[in-house]
Amino acid sequence: MLKIGITGGIGSGKTIVCKMFEILGVPVYYADERAKWLTNHDLQLRKEIKELLGRQAYDEHGQYNRKWVAAQVFDNPELLKMLNSLIHPRVFADTDQWFLQHQHKPYTLREAALMNAAGDKNDFDSVIVVSAPVGLRIERIRKRDPQRNEEEIKAIIDRQKTEEQFASIANHTIMNDDEHLLIPQVLALHEKLTQQA
């Protein structure tokens, strides 16, 4: 089974591309969604997060307080690094279990915003990058999250890899720029990856 990473900046359209692959029967692991699930359900992780950030990391209902946590770490790279050092190993262990459950498939996708090139501290066979111009990404995010202003969105984009950095880790690129048709690109790549497997 091939292990394929899929990434791209916020607003690039990773999720819609992943949904297309799922329609084709490809299992997709959503790292950010699983991380959210684990912060709420992994008891050891909850304990470690509370020790790092305090009780406010969880709300009165016992749910992970993402907004509050994000505000604490947004301008504190050291604290963010410490938080990630708690969450990321749990997500990687969870991913390994998930891969085992899907090893009968020709290939699987692991979606994440943070990703290295294939073979660089990961066991990916290749990496797909979903790409879109920054202006279009901002427009999409504003439609999706109307409460966010352009400055907030630009601040998030500035903290992510640049398009050039994404391009440097890409073995395959899907252009989601409203000029290239998305479905033919996904179908062609699906066929190629299935043949490689």
TrEMBL record:
A molecular function (GO) term: ATP binding
Main localization of the protein described in the UniProt heading: cytoplasm
Localization of this protein: Cytoplasm
UniProt keyword terms in alphabetical order: ATP-binding, Coenzyme A biosynthesis, Cytoplasm, Kinase, Nucleotide-binding, Transferase
UniProt-listed Pfam families: CoaE
Catalytic function, reaction form: 3'-dephospho-CoA + ATP = ADP + CoA + H(+)
Enzyme Commission identifier(s): 2.7.1.24
Broadest EC class assigned to this enzyme: transferase
Any one GO biological process: coenzyme A biosynthetic process
Membrane-spanning intervals of the chain: none
The organism's place on the tree of life at top rank: Bacteria
Entry binding sites for ATP: G11, S12, G13, K14, T15, I16
GO cellular component entries: cytoplasm
Pathway(s) this gene product operates in, as recorded in its UniProt entry: Cofactor biosynthesis; coenzyme A biosynthesis; CoA from (R)-pantothenate: step 5/5
Family under the similarity heading: Belongs to the CoaE family.
HAMAP family named in the record: Dephospho_CoA_kinase
Described purpose of this protein according to its UniProt entry: Catalyzes the phosphorylation of the 3'-hydroxyl group of dephosphocoenzyme A to form coenzyme A.
Annotated protein name in UniProt: Dephospho-CoA kinase
